[in-house]
Prior knowledge:
Binding site for S-adenosyl-L-methionine: 26, 52-53, 73, 119
Radius of gyration: 18 Å
Number of strands: 7
GO molecular function: S-adenosylmethionine-dependent methyltransferase activity; tRNA (5-carboxymethoxyuridine(34)-5-O)-methyltransferase activity
Strand order of the largest sheet: 3-2-1-4-5-7-6
Enzyme class: transferase
Family: Belongs to the class I-like SAM-binding methyltransferase superfamily. CmoM family.
Strand content: 15-25%
Largest sheet: 7 strands, mixed
CATH topology: Rossmann fold
Order of helices and strands: HHEHEHEEHEHHHEHHHE
CATH superfamily: Vaccinia Virus protein VP39
Organism: Leminorella richardii
CATH architecture: 3-Layer(aba) Sandwich
Amino acid sequence: MKDRNFDDIAEKFSHNIYGTTKGKIRQAVLWQDLEKTLASMPDGPLHILDAGGGGGIMACEMAKRGHRVTFCDISETMLEKARQSAIENGVEDKIKFIHCAVQNVAERLDAPVDLVLFHAVLEWIDDQRGALYAVEQCLRPGGVLSLMFYNHDALLFRNVTLGNFDYIEAGMRKKKRRSLSPDNPLVPQQVEGWLSDMDMSVIEKSGVRIFHDYMQDKQHQQQYFDALLALELRYCRQEPFVSLGRYIHLVAQKPNASNVRDRSYE
């Protein structure tokens, strides 16, 4: 299996992910967590890596806040979309664009970074543990990883509520390549185990879209969006709701140099 390249569905991705109620909730929950994270980090401009950054929304926002951003994506189409967005936002001089897979970006960096944004990428990759290790290697000691991934447990729960038992029995494999449903959903417990193996400490955990996707009347997602968003932000860090999030957002910190033990992930 090859890692997913979005060249063929870039327009569809931009419209269906960023321009919807689910996209707005996703951004709101991420920023609620990131605002807290940024406030705890050193003063002054940070060096941020947006790994597999898609259309560049996060990269541009970080650049507008005065941070220095390195952006990479395997898709040339998404890379150009992000570059155009940077020009439109007047921050093209604060973002370095690299066309490469996330697994290869470490060798293209001048120095380790303070913060890695790794959002909704891991579920499109075959060797997920290897990719996670690759982006962790981009962090300086004490640096922070913002990781969001598609939640296998929530996908299972949703399909049970819909009565899709044949689909579940078949392993919940998606049928269409051009679908925006991710290829490889992840079990949160396993991802947290990988981070623990890397000596990364999870300091925040949120569920993204803990209510939205389970609403029976889809029109209510727009009709009552303000009330829905308020509830998403209120309960996204509380169990059992966190575990129901269609995506899980983890904020994890790399140990300082003095606390790093010898390890190998060959």
